[in-house]
Design the sequence.
């Protein structure tokens, strides 16, 4: 199905909202994380005092706890101090029997609404819709063979405002007033894998800026040049780039011999 219907200077997105194609947002872009994990040991968030994290129990089958961050910038993702408490805590949970890399657990990336234009989030939603099978590898999901992945990456399925719990396994949640929530990622307690989730959202939002709606509607994933662009920008998105290398999606450049 075609999720982008253009009407004059507006288009109607996948959830039926009319969106201004000329809208431009200039707010500071911040991110937030929800990291679900499974822990075979007893979990008691009251025993831990954190200054920059919000710890929750989670009632989802197979999920024990959830780590929530305060808002942070993309730059802070690659700076030691701002998120030091998060990295220390995920290592502690992992060391005590915690496991994030299970299909029931996800990492949800929130991005501030006032930093993302209407057309940017529209293009991102379309990129996920059309190229979900290719993006599933970078989200560390098995698109073809897993129930949770098929729910998380389901085509043309988005949470509608006011119906947040209609189906929790959706790629983009529009139900928050301050953020868009990207829900495609499989959880993991490795620091580099957590960082790669935020990098994918940041890279994709910047990547779609250079594309037209026609490009997104008509070109294949290869023709769009997503992975080539990631290879060129590898230093800015080091964890996502290394993940693409690990998955065999990108071939490392050969050094020229002297």
Sequence:
């Amino acid at each position: 199905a075609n999720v982008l219907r253009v009407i004059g200077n507006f288009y109607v997105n996948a959830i039926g909202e009319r969106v201004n194609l000329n809208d431009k947002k200039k707010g500071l872009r911040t991110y937030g994380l929800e990291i679900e994990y499974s822990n075979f040991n007893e979990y008691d968030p009251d025993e831990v005092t954190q200054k920059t994290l919000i710890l929750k129990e989670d009632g989802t089958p197979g999920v024990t706890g959830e780590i929530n961050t305060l808002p942070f910038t993309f730059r802070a993702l690659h700076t030691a101090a701002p998120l030091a408490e998060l990295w220390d805590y995920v290592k502690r949970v992992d060391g005590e029997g915690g496991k994030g890399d299970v299909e029931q657990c996800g990492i949800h990336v929130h991005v501030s609404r006032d930093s993302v234009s209407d057309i940017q989030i529209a293009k991102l939603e379309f990129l996920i819709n059309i190229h979900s099978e290719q993006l599933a590898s970078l989200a560390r999901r098995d698109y073809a063979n897993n129930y949770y992945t098929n729910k998380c990456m389901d085509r043309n399925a988005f949470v509608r405002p006011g119906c947040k719990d209609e189906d929790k396994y959706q790629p983009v949640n529009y139900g928050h007033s301050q953020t868009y929530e990207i829900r495609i990622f499989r959880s993991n307690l490795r620091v580099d894998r957590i960082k790669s989730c935020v990098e994918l959202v940041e890279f994709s939002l910047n990547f779609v800026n250079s594309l037209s709606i026609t490009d997104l509607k008509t070109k294949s994933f290869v023709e769009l040049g997503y992975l080539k662009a990631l290879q060129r920008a590898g230093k800015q998105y080091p964890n996502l780039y290394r993940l693409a290398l690990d998955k065999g999606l990108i071939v490392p450049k050969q050094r020229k011999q002297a």
